[in-house]
Structure formats: C-alpha cells, structure tokens
Design a protein that fits this description.
There is one protein chain. The protein is of the alpha/beta class. It contains 19 helices and 16 strands. Strands 7-6-10-4-11-14-5-15 form an 8-stranded mixed β-sheet, with helices on both faces. Strands 1-2 form a two-stranded parallel ribbon. Strands 3-16 form a two-stranded antiparallel sheet. A hairpin with a 2-residue loop joins strand 8 and strand 9. It is elongated.
Length: 545
C-alpha cells in the first residue's frame, strides 16, 4: 500500500490489494472457524487452506472490480473497508454473527443502547484496520483503463477471477462441501459480504411495496365463562429482555437469583420454553403474532394484526408500557406509554438509565380508573447487554465483583456473569412487586388479576467464546433460545375462568415455546375466535367443566 502514495497505480491493482486486505485483516475470526471446520491446521490440509484463501480473495476481487471506475472506486473501497473493520470488531469482541436480524436490531435500537457498544477500543481497532487503509486509498493516485478497452479489461478480470475461483472450488469441493454444510455459520462470519447481504435483506423488507393491514380475529368475543361476571379483570403480560432460563434459580441455577419468586404462592414456572428468535426485533413481533416460529415471516407480521388487536376486538382495553427500544410494531394500534426517558425526572431513573420499576408507576390508578377489562403489557429493559451493571439499582449488586464496563475484554468472564446475575435478581424483585401490586389491587378494587412473564430471547455469556445474542437460529446456542416463562393468577381469576392450577403445574416441565403464547393468552381469558389453535393453548386441557 505504500506505493499508492508515491506513484500512479492501476485502479485494478488497488482493487486487488483491497481484496487481499479484506480477506486477511477483516476475517481473522472467519479463518479461525474455517480451520476448525475442515479439521484443524496441518501440513496435509495446507493445500485446502491455501486454495480456500485464494477462492475468497478471487471472489472479493471479482465483486469489487465493477466499482473500479473514476469517482466510484475510492468511496466504494473505503465503505467496504470500514464496514469490514466494524463487523470484524463485533464478531471478534462478542462472538456475534452479522445477519439481517442484527442489522434490524442496529436500526431499531435506541441511542442509549447503541452507545453502550461504542468504546475507545473499538474506535482504535476500526481506525487502524479500517481507517488507515481507507486513508491510503483516498490518497492513492490512480490510472483508469479507458473506453471500450477498459470495460473489456474489467469484464475479463471479473470473469477470469470467478472462473478461477470456480475451478479451485471444484478441485476442493470434496473437502469444502461437508465443512460448509455442517458449519453454516461461516457465511455470517465472512466480512464484509455478511454485512452487505444482511443490509440488503433488511432494506428489501423495509422498502418493499406497502401491503394493506391484514385483519385477524375480528370474530373475537368473550366466551361462556364471562357470563354473569361483574368483577373486572386485569392481566399483565411482562415481556422480559435478554433473560436466559439457565440463570434463574427457579430452574436450578446455583446462585439464588429468584429469592422472592421462589416464595410466591401459586406461581407456576415453565422450565422448558424456547424463544421464537434470538433478537428483540424478531422475537417480539413473532411472539405476539399468530404465526409459529417455523412459519414466521417478518414482513408478513408487520402487515398483520396480532394478539393485542384480537384482544381489542374482544372488548379489552389494551395498554403497552415500554422501558426498552419500542414494541417493534406490535403495539401500533393500542395505548402506548414510553417510560424509558430519564428527562421525566422519575425517582426510578439514574443518569441516562430508567430502571424497570418505573413501569409500575401509576399502574394502580390506571387499573382503578379503567371501566373495561384490562390487558397491560410491560416491556422491560431487563438484562440487556453489554452494560449489565447499568440495568439494576445499587441495592441489587449482590453478586460480584462485577464488570462495570461494556468492554468485555477488560473484564473476567466471572465478573460479566456476576453483573448479569444481578440483572436477573432485579427482575425477580420487579416481578414479585408486580404480583404484590396485582394481589393488593384484587383485594382493594375488586378485580381478578393475573400475570404472565416470558423473556424475548436469552444471552450468551462466554460459552464457546460467544457473548450477547442475535445468532442465526439454525445454530444459535441454547443459552440464546432457552427462556424463562411463568404464570401467576389470583384466586378470583382462576376460579372465575375455572382454571385447574394442578393441571397447569403438571405441564410445567413439558417442552413449550413462544408459539404457545398467542393462543394461551386467548385461552386463559376465554376469548373465542377462529384464529385460536387449541393445540397450542396451554389452558385448553386445564379448564374444569
């Protein structure tokens, strides 16, 4: 690259140099995983490894060659270098992979969450591996092949690079095919193609032709168990954030992270629940839709009514309170309150963080003043990383020492886990406070109350050197997909709807998933509609005649 500054060079040579740089500096993690996928490093595998490296360089060279025109080549190469560098940082630092869900999360997260991922180590890494090469590219004096001859030359390079890459692929196919087939995560690790493909997929969904909203459940009505009832009902659905089931002591975790919930009478803990996705932007729309995980389509979900709409059709007042980065379109047609803004001066906020306790402020008044049956959704900040230590007030720092930074390389794994466990301890307290509020409200206001809690997805805490979440579901670890779920009902609620608690308790250890939530909420509230699937309704077999 030094020659770039001293003399004119061919634009094609610069493109090849950048292709070589992208294949090396930006892809250490990819090559590490690739070597493991083909059986490790040895002299016998050297031809396969060298050939594979050549394939990647040739593919990058071919894909970058169409940009080798005046006024285009420099901005394009700089964009690819910086994208590859930033992607490599997140892959190396947190063990995440770059796919459409990650890009969606980046665009749909709030500013405070996004800034937690930015730090001086990242700036330095991107400056050295992306910024410095970009500076050299910007200062390069280039010669461009002109006219028809130039176009033919570029076409020849493009076709020749692809042909040579294809030839090498055929020669190495016997070794590469099973490795790639068994390790599909590799395509999410190769930068910058992973980021480009993910961005393309996200933008195609975002800018697709508008589709009219599809109505569902317009036939919803309250069933026979509502007949003759005069008491109102209040159901609170708590959507947890990044809470993994493995770190709940209710599920056998060694640390006592659920000291209050463990002593809640009538609480039913469902121990084997799988999430619909590994990121909020996927799981939240999915869990509130009528689609199962296998049939879930993000674009379809955006243009189709969901659980909250069906409840409205049945006559419920639906209210969403958010301490996160929004409801991802789920609450667009119901009441919405954002409590995440510290500028409100709430006593539950500190610095730029509002704790989940703020979700409960004013809730008793809302319940008392409502004249209709209520369904209230509380969307937690929960255990959102990487700044776990910011998710809970000082009084909940029971486990330690904790990692107080979002820069995991400065912390031990034990301190990261300790900070995370404190977030679960705080969630335990928040859920117990929610139950206490509902129990007190049931007594004082004469309403029947219930609470359903589930997390949107889990979290990796260093297992397999993977952190955070967002892995493609196909090979996501169980830490990201195994989530907590629990149910509490007042005596009046279970009696009113003739729900057999012992029957539900017997199902607590059965395999369940987010697929059950849509239909179980309708079943629990005795909402009759054609979109309810009894096979996915937890309560269907647990209602006494």
């Amino acid at each position: 690259m030094q020659n770039v500054l001293s003399r004119r060079i061919s634009a094609n040579l610069l493109v090849f140099t950048v292709a070589l740089l992208l294949a090396t500096v930006g892809n250490f993690n990819f090559w590490s995983n690739f070597v493991h996928a083909v059986g490790g490093f040895s002299l016998a595998r050297l031809p396969v490894l060298a050939g594979s490296f050549a394939i990647v360089v040739l593919l990058f060279y071919a894909l970058l060659t169409p940009f080798s025109f005046r006024f285009v080549v420099k901005p394009a190469l700089i964009a690819f270098l910086l994208t590859a560098s930033a992607s490599a940082w997140f892959i190396n630092q947190y063990g995440v992979v770059i796919d459409k869900a990650i890009i969606q999360s980046i665009f749909e997260t709030d500013t405070r969450e996004a800034t937690e991922l930015l730090n001086w180590h990242m700036v330095l890494f991107v400056a050295v591996t992306g910024g410095l090469p970009s500076l050299l590219v910007a200062r390069a004096k280039l010669q461009y092949p002109q006219g028809v001859r130039g176009i033919a030359q570029r076409a020849g390079i493009f076709a020749g690079a692809l042909a040579l890459a294809a030839l090498l692929l055929v020669l190495l196919f016997k070794t590469l095919a099973p490795a790639v087939r068994e390790h599909r995560e590799l395509r999410y690790l190769l930068t910058p193609t992973n980021a480009v493909q993910a961005l393309n997929g996200y933008l195609r969904n975002r800018w697709s032709t508008p589709v009219p909203l599809q109505e569902i459940g317009r036939d919803a009505t309250k069933g026979s168990r509502w007949a003759g009832q005069t008491r109102r009902t209040v159901t609170v659905i708590v959507v947890g954030e990044t809470a993994r089931a493995a770190n709940f002591s209710l599920n056998g975790y060694a640390r006592e992270t659920n000291p209050r919930l463990a002593h809640e009478d009538g609480l039913i803990n469902f121990a084997k629940v799988e999430s619909c996705g590994t990121a909020t932007a996927v799981s939240v729309p999915c869990v509130f839709s009528a689609m199962t995980r296998e049939r879930y389509d993000d674009n379809k979900a955006k243009h189709q009514e969901g659980l909250l709409d069906v409840l409205k059709h049945a006559g419920f007042r639906v209210h969403w309170r958010d301490n996160n980065s929004g409801c991802k379109g789920v609450c667009d047609r119901v009441e919405f309150v954002d409590v995440s803004n510290p500028s409100t001066g709430s006593r539950n906020c500190a610095g730029d963080e509002c704790y989940d306790q703020d979700l409960l402020e004013g809730l008793p008044n809302l319940i008392r003043q409502s004249t209709k049956d209520l369904v209230i959704v509380l969307h937690q900040k929960g255990s959102h990383g990487p700044a776990y230590a910011h998710r809970y007030p000082a009084g909940f720092g029971r486990f330690g020492p904790v990692c107080n930074s979002s820069e995991f390389e400065t912390c031990t794994r034990d301190s990261i886990v300790a900070a995370y466990d404190n977030t679960i301890l705080y969630t335990d307290s928040f859920l117990a406070d929610t139950i206490d509020l509902l129990r007190k409200t049931a007594s004082e206001s004469g309403v029947d109350t219930s609470m359903l809690y589930f997390s949107d997805h889990g979290e990796s805490l260093g297992e397999g050197n993977m952190y955070l979440h967002g892995a493609p579901y196909l090979f996501a670890p169980s830490e990201q997909t195994h989530v907590p779920m629990m149910l509490w009902m007042s005596d009046g609620f279970s009696q009113r709807f003739r729900i057999d608690r012992s029957c539900l308790q017997a199902r607590a250890d059965q395999p369940l998933s987010h697929d059950n939530v849509f239909h179980s909420v309708l079943g629990m509230l005795n909402v009759e509609t054609a979109v309810l699937n009894p096979k996915l309704d937890l309560f269907h077999a647990c209602v006494r005649n």
